[in-house]
Amino acid sequence: xHHRYDPSARAExxxxxxxxxxxxxxxxxxSLSMLxxxxxxxNGHRALLVTDPGLVAAGHAARAQQxxxxxxxxxxxxxxxxxxxxxxxxxxxxxxxxxxxxxxxIGLGGGSAMDCAKGINxxxxxxxxxxxxxxxxxxxxxxxxxxGIPTTAGTGSEAQxxxxxxxxxxxxxxxxxxxxxxxxxxxxxxxxxxxxxxSVAAVSALDAISHAVESFVTxxxxxxxxxxxxxxxxxxxxxYEPFLENRTDAGAAGDMLLGAHLAGxxxxxxxxxxxxxxxxxxxxxxxxxxxxxxxxxxxHVVRFNATSAEGAESASAALYGDLARTVGLNGDAPSDTERxxxxxxxxxxxxxxxxxxxxxxVPLDVLDQLADEAAGQWTARFNPRAADAGALRxxxxxxxxxxxxxxxxxxxxxxxx
Length: 417
Known about the structure:
By secondary structure, this protein is of the alpha/beta class. The protein contains 14 helices and 10 strands.
């Protein structure tokens, strides 16, 4: 394989470099040390490092800055990113990028930092507002080369051409995508995950798991996306529990990072489904962290997709069976689909998450509004089973928990709640 730079300096660290779907990925313990060399290959001279206060406190931002400066790059750190970034965060980072006259952008953090870096890139190149780039292929001008460095095994944003950002005024999610927005290079360094609190590690991992499971069955699935999604699910499933117990386990952390990246690559090729459509309104209105919201909805979506509108077994049931068998799920559940759904619920329970919407304080009388908003989410149309507002309302009802008798039964989904 042709390498754009010499990885021999870290060969003893059990790392590797490969082109994955057009992105040069450098993986292995200590691979952050390659950042300066990668930046030089991208002809960077003035780098903006986009990150968050937690990464500054952990020392990762300072280390990355030192590596860049030792390679001759003037580097500024923008650490104003918060969870679920909005257009206001992008605008603030844009000011710093223009002051620096940046010619290289680096997203260091979870999906929030990487998405914010992509947003800054859109506006640096084309001006205007983030709202102008909602959709796909709307970039103007030439975007800067960029590097993604995930510090959670979660969103897989480093493998995607989309930035998921919220409007500052109402927190409505916008997907802004363009081929130019993809990172040229990605560094997967498991040592960066060592400082994660268990709760953050768990929620991020559940997000990655949901990406693998959802992308495997979407309307846009194809053999390549399914190959990535299946391997992502295998890696994430086998490493989830040891990773939660010990974030310094480089083997488990490396599997989690690669699994999350492959799941992100699967999304790029096949998109997502109803679980993500349902999750976004929960985040926007009730502050339910994205990974938690998706993990709560996913088992119900799996059961929904496994049957047709007429109640017969659907094509998705066989696909879910593939995933169940990939990780050797067994037990007394009546089907592979039910084994998978129960396993997904068990993984969320290991993170200590409430099992119902009631546990997050979501009132019953807002489910219709949530369903209407979920039906308008872009991911809903890729779900393998048609999911209109009525179907999504039933999914919310199944996830809600115990309901007053006047509201039962919502659907056959409640039998599995």
